[in-house]
Amino acid sequence: MLERFVERLLYGSRWLLAPIYLGLALVLVAIGVKFFQEIYHLLTHLLEMTESNMVLLILGLIDLSLVGSLVVMVMFSGYENFVSQIDIEEGDDKLAWLGKLDAGTLKLKLAASIVAISSIHLLQEFVNIPHVPSEQLMWYVIIHLTFVVSALLLGLLDRMSFASHRDHGKDH
Fold it and tell me: I want to staple 94 with a disulfide (CB 3.0 to 4.6 A). Which of 9, 88, 115, 171 is the partner?
C-alpha cells in the first residue's frame, strides 16, 4: 500500500514540469517582442544602414527565429514526453511532428539547432571580422566546432544505440 502511494506520488509529480513549459511560452513572447523590435529598427534605419550592418541584423532575426523554433520544439515535445499527451482535434492545425519526438530524437534536433544558431553567430562575426580580435574569433570557431562534433557524436551514439531496435522493427 505504501509502495503504491509512493509510485502514484512520483508519477503525479511529473505535473511539476507543466509550469516550466508554460514559462517557455512566455519566453516565446519575449523572443517575439525582441524580433519585432529588431524589424522596427531595420525598417526605420534601412536607408542609412550599411549593407554589412543590414546583413548582421537579418542574421540576428534568423537567429531569433531559430531560437523560437527551438523553444517550441522543447516546450511541446517535453510536455508530451514527460507530462501528458496533447489532445488536438482532427480539424485543428496539428504539427506533423507532434507526438513523434522521443527524448533521443529531441536531443538530436536540439543539437542540430544549436549548431545552426552557432553557425549564424559565427557568420555574424565573420561579416564583422575587421572589428573582431583574432583570439576571440579563434575561440568562436573552437566553440562552434565543439558544437558540431558534439552533434555528430550524439547522432552516431543514437544510431549505434538504437540500430538493433530499428532493425528489429523492419522484420515485423
Answer: 88
Query: What distance lies between CA 105 and its chain's CA centroid?
Result: 12
Short-list 87, 108, 114, CA closest to 161: 108
Burial (0-12, 13-18, 19+ Cβ within 10 Å), 67 = buried
User: pTM for this structure?
Assistant: 0.74
Phi, psi of 85 (to 5 degrees): -70, 140
Cα R_g (the chain), whole angstroms? 21
Phi/psi zone of residue 102: left (φ > 0), alpha (ψ -120 to 50 degrees), beta?
beta
User: Which residue from 92, 101, 70, 79 is spatially nearest to 19, judged by alpha carbons?
Assistant: 79
Mean pLDDT of 106-113: 85
Cell numbers for 53, please give them.
550592418
